[in-house]
Design brief:
Number of strands of chain A: 9
Order of helices and strands of chain A: EHEHEHEHEHEEEHEHHHHHH
Pathway (chains A, B): Amino-acid biosynthesis; L-tyrosine biosynthesis; (4-hydroxyphenyl)pyruvate from prephenate (NAD(+) route): step 1/1
CATH topology of the largest domain in chain A: Rossmann fold
Oligomer: homodimer
Number of domains of chain A: 2
CATH architecture of the largest domain in chain A: 3-Layer(aba) Sandwich
Radius of gyration of chain A: 22 Å
GO molecular function, one term (chains A, B): prephenate dehydrogenase (NADP+) activity
EC number (chains A, B): 1.3.1.12
Largest interface: A-B, 135 and 134 residues
Catalytic activity (chains A, B): prephenate + NAD(+) = 3-(4-hydroxyphenyl)pyruvate + CO2 + NADH
Helix content of chain A: 40-55%
Pfam families (chains A, B): PDH_C (PF20463), PDH_N (PF02153)
CATH class of the largest domain in chain A: Alpha Beta
CATH superfamily of the largest domain in chain A: NAD(P)-binding Rossmann-like Domain
Largest sheet of chain A: 6 strands, parallel
Chain lengths: 315, 315
């Protein structure tokens, strides 16, 4: 079983990247799409994110054998209701949401008569919108499928083959376990980054201009993550609340321990932690999940591109 | 006033980069160096980090009119004592430490008869050791000087000119204010990164292999920071304790507020924070302090280099 027509609902970073990757890797498969925002549809047409942009969600999915909902987690139910009138009875419905238990429940409720296999490609950048997508976003990235117990094996295999064609490596996982794993590897890091950037911008003793100027000492990496789409992330925390709170509790306890070590001048406790965290970094590089070059290869700032990357004024 | 002979004590990332940058930008200035580790001295000779590598610290600084101590903050006093027998009476002593009040006190105590102007180039990567340095590390980066009240203006100017020649933009700051600014922009981000990587590697419900595999969702950026030199960072937290604890208190309070927002499902509070943090990112890009390309330009992983960056196995 393979798909002959794929419809993408929501044409931002993820939806646009799926369309562009399909054009590159699956040229024989028809693509159609829709976005709730007319300006996004217009831009998606100009960039050719999918072959056909419909002005109506039901029209976009008509004749499709795979529909992928690429909207914030909190908008999944609404998107499912919007496409329902146009869905073929045997069309598989999937998504790209960052939390899976909540999405599965919402989609099953909205589309009780359709096969649903949620998915989560663990890939992204801090950019969003119809200009953000690119065809290689999924290369060497994992895509996690969380099929319900009653899912047809042929459909799971077909969806896995689709993601592999786009460059991803596919894993199958229980939805609850997915939500716990991603709480650690993605949701908590985002929450921490948003929070520290907020803390820094609220200080009275240190100006915002100083925070910006001296950000190269570590802070700037957090600001990149904290530039991610606010609506998408609000929805993640609303929909993966329990796993996020559980992991946050562990992090807070560990931070309290480090705070005590600093207060008490316990250099050994610090050195122990700071040494063993290097092993995880080595694992990530060995698995090809990050750039091994120092500073992600951005060390030579003379090679930087883009109008915004002007050097600071010489004093 | 300019320097004709510069001695670098400690030949890791910072010391090595200063030597390489001098060779490129100040070819007329003599350079000498020493490191406490014989293996580092040997490697520094092979890479030509400085023109002359001495086997004795006093010998390394003989005839120098500027000595820069590039060792962890906690080793500054020891390094100062080691070079003291060779120091010319009019030699200026400086450093590159990440906290300035503690270093100033340690150096003034160790070298009571010498002019001391502490400095902090806000630049670095997660790498350390004699192979980590590169000549453009200070390009478009700030270097903060924290001269004592009694410092000679001509010496401050000469040290500023030295750093400008290496590509940095120089600012002068009170030591106490430096320590507060850097607590926010560098020390707390490192502490948080070390802690969350530690939390993730201690979980029982999520395996270390899973944390590594799915790190592209945000976690991997923290692991880069948490791969920084453990001894250097232990010393930073031991020596900038008060400012770090003060800033940590603010961050913890803000994190508690976000935890409550998640618990209570307060989407508005989340969306407000996640929206306003984007302004800081825009400021950092406009000031040329980070790479404006999505994902630091590492989005296309097919272009990655290095033996360690192998793609994951296809399942």
């Amino acid at each position: 079983m393979t798909f002959s027509r794929v419809a993408i609902v929501g044409l931002g970073l993820l939806g646009g990247s799926i369309g562009l990757a399909m054009r590159e890797h699956l040229p024989g498969v028809a693509s159609a799409g829709w976005d709730a925002d007319p300006a996004v549809r217009e831009r998606a047409r100009e960039r050719g994110l999918v072959a056909t942009i419909a002005d109506d969600p039901a029209e976009a999915v008509r004749g499709a054998d795979l529909v992928i909902l690429c909207v914030p987690v909190g908008a999944m139910a609404q998107a499912a209701h919007a496409v329902a009138p146009g869905l073929s009875p045997d069309c598989l419905v999937s998504d790209v949401g960052s939390s899976k238990q909540g999405v599965a429940g919402a989609l099953e409720q909205a589309l009780p008569n359709h096969a649903i296999i949620p998915a989560h490609p663990v890939a992204g950048t801090e950019q969003s919108g119809p200009d953000a997508g690119f065809s290689s976003l999924f290369h060497h990235r994992w895509c996690i499928l969380t099929p319900p117990a009653h899912a047809e094996a042929a459909q799971v295999d077909a969806l896995a083959a689709f993601w592999r064609a786009l460059g991803a490596t596919v894993e199958v996982m229980e939805p609850a376990h997915h939500d716990l794993v991603l709480a650690v590897t993605s949701h908590i890091p985002h929450l921490i980054a948003y929070t520290i950037v907020g803390t820094a911008s609220d200080l009275e003793e240190v100006t915002r201009s100083e925070v910006i100027k001296y950000s190269a000492g570590g802070f700037r990496d957090f600001t990149r993550i904290a530039a991610s789409d606010p609506t998408m992330w609000r929805d993640v925390f609303l929909h993966n609340r329990d796993a996020v709170l559980a992991m946050l509790g562990r992090f807070t306890a560990d931070l309290d321990a480090m705070t005590s070590a600093i207060r008490e001048g316990d250099g050994q406790a610090m050195h122990d932690l700071f040494s063993r965290t290097r092993a995880i970094r080595r694992g990530i590089l060995a698995m090809g999940q990050d750039d091994a070059r120092p500073d992600f290869g951005r060390g030579d700032h003379d090679e930087r591109q883009g109008d915004e990357a002007e050097p600071p004024p010489q004093s």
